[in-house]
Amino acid sequence: MTSLSETLSDSVVITKRNLIKVKRVPDLIVFATLSPIMFVVLFRYVFGGAIGGLPPGISYAEFLLPGIFAQTVVFGSTITGASIADDLQKGLIDRFRSLPMSRSAVLVGRTVADAGLNVISIAVMALTGLLVGWRINSSLGEAIGGFLVLLVFAYAISWLMAMVGLLVRTPEVVQNASFIVIFPITFIANTFVPLETFPAVLRTFAEWNPVSSVTLAARELFGNVPPGYPEPEAWSLQNPVLYTLLWTALILAVFVPVSVRLYKRTASR
Amino acid sequence: MSNAILVEELQKRFGSNTALAGVDLAVPEGSVLGLLGPNGAGKTTVVRILTTLLQPDAGRAEVAGIDVLREPDRVRSLIGLTGQYAAVDEYLTGFENLEMVGRLYRLGKRESRERAGELLERFDLADAANRPAKTYSGGMRRRLDIAASLIARPRVLFLDEPTTGLDPRSRLGMWEFIADLAGGGTTILLTTQYLEEADRLADGMVVIDRGRVIARGTADELKAQVGGQRLEFAVTDAGALPAMVELLRPLAVDEPHVDEQARRLSIPVSGGAEVLAEALRRLDGHTADIFDVGLRRPDLDDVFLALTGHAAEDDPAAADKTPAEPVPVGGTR
Ligand SMILES: Nc1ncnc2c1ncn2[C@@H]1O[C@H](COP(=O)(O)OP(=O)(O)OP(=O)(O)O)[C@@H](O)[C@H]1O
Ligand SMILES: [Mg+2]
Description:
The complex is a heterodimer. Chain A is mainly alpha-helical.
């Protein structure tokens, strides 16, 4: 059995390896930064005028940005699955599995590197947001809390995607499959429009969708919810930070052990 | 002498497909075992089980005296593996690849870097050390892959078709290197489709087919199983063949084999060079028709053919997998 410090040092080696790839493959940086910028601009200026239902006193930019943050980091996590499948296909997982290294370091290193990528995209989006009228109206501590909630939730999704990558094994398929699942989940939520505009069934789904709670948590922590905004009815949205962290813990508790177990038995081919 | 690799009654099925139907192997410490077999024989499956990547359904496996199934962690720190397909990180440079593997073997930063430098030098990759492996040719990747498996100076090395895809010069270099390692005391299990390779490198050989061992021994022992040498002629005009057969029949120890299409004649003989000289004397009036003649001793191709009933490269899948054949396998020498 490997000790915790060995697991950590192996994970650092793997994280470094993954970040070198980010440096050498400009596509990844482009994906991590350009598409969120595009989203910000698209929603802010193209749809922004048409999307109604917002209470007076709040600009669409302020409402929108936390939603885009949430959607982008969740999508960013899907890279984990495709990268693991790629490593599997190229025989690298076989090589790692034949080494006396920690059995979880490959997955830890992968998810941590992808979280790093998410930090980059969130930073780029925040700067773009400030340019188009988004503002942080809270304390520094709360704002940092907002970014952390987003990143921690996305980190948990990375572990779910790691499992998908180990099961599906073809990077392109992982990418498409996760798009089909993640896309609706990030749209049937309060990310781009207020929940009050949803039909009843969708609304219930959206209220309990953790993407809604992470978005609302970020809105609250950035001070993007104006005073007098009606109190949500669902418990999940009355306690968005707690609800998001519960989901995060649940996802990690299930998918960390499942993915590590799969990794131990998986083999290329 | 103790065995560095010991395998007993190893079995593995994939669904209804039996990959290993009870394989036994023993590789003495410091020796090289050539594991031979046609496509799908089960070579890679044996290697994967011994390197802890795959769990067998039944049987026992020990590497360096350690049970592979009970203590895979200890086994991993003593072995090196070069799989059938090169496993290098394309985005890292050659140096970074080796350094990473060194670190994961827990060599420490300084030693990992030193070893990486040494091995890049040894494998003729020093010039490309700081280029991403993506820019390497197939042969360079292969060499980098093998270097990676050597970084921690493993006691037992597994090489799954190490020279597949290498050009003749790199192949010779690799053989030299493998021979060096073996000379230095590393135990090596080498799988190959190239009989010449096993003949050159291996102390002992095991031939498997459809998950079973069908022969084992030294190269000479295997050749002795197939026996006989042959006189082979290639002629310019197939019409000359019947007359030649009649002239040479007294020298044959078994039925001559005539191939009119290929304009070839093969006659089992015994007696070596004298028979060849005698045959040429008898063919005095026909030498104008003969464009090639040779005395051929059985090589491992014949062993293969005799044991498995099909040549090593019979399988069509083999043809597109290994575009670069090292020598015309089965050709006349
Ligand atoms: N993961 C797998 N799933 C299903 N079948 C498998 C798997 N791995 C191997 N097999 C089957 O097991 C048998 C032995 O395969 P193996 O790869 O060990 O052969 P090999 O001797 O290495 O062949 P080659 O020379 O083509 O590399 C084959 O019939 C193969 O199809
Ligand atoms: Mg194989």
